[in-house]
Amino acid sequence: MSRVAIYRKAHFNAAHRLYNEDWDDAKNKEVFGVCSNANYHGHNYELEVKVVGEVDQQTGMVIDLKLLKDIIKDKIEDRYDHKNLNLDVDDFKTVNPSAENICIKIYDILREEIDDQFDLSVRLFETPRNFVEYPA
Ligand code: NI
Questions:
Q1: Which of 10, 34, 88, 119 stands the most exposed, by the fewest C-beta atoms within 10 Å?
Q2: Is this prediction's pTM over 0.90?
């Protein structure tokens, strides 16, 4: 049986601010720099979802890309696109919306939706040059 990795790319725009409420403004500024600016800033987030599994003998496919596309659209893009991640989304009320934490959250959401027979990993690009991957 042949295992193949299949990828789907997606995109959302969102605003955030990196801030630890246990610290004063000076400490936040020291640690997060301009990313802790009080009035938030935006990113064009690019998402890469990787699903690994056996090629189904009947369909020739690992997973139906239309299904994967719809899951990502419904569960991730609609959830985060054009949102302020700190203010508009419950996911980051108490969790700093760093690329790392957003990536983990996206993985956790998708993991619930995608059958256990598939391996899953998520890459999140905050800029073209800065990106994270989970699981590592
Ligand atoms: Ni940022």
A1: 34
A2: yes
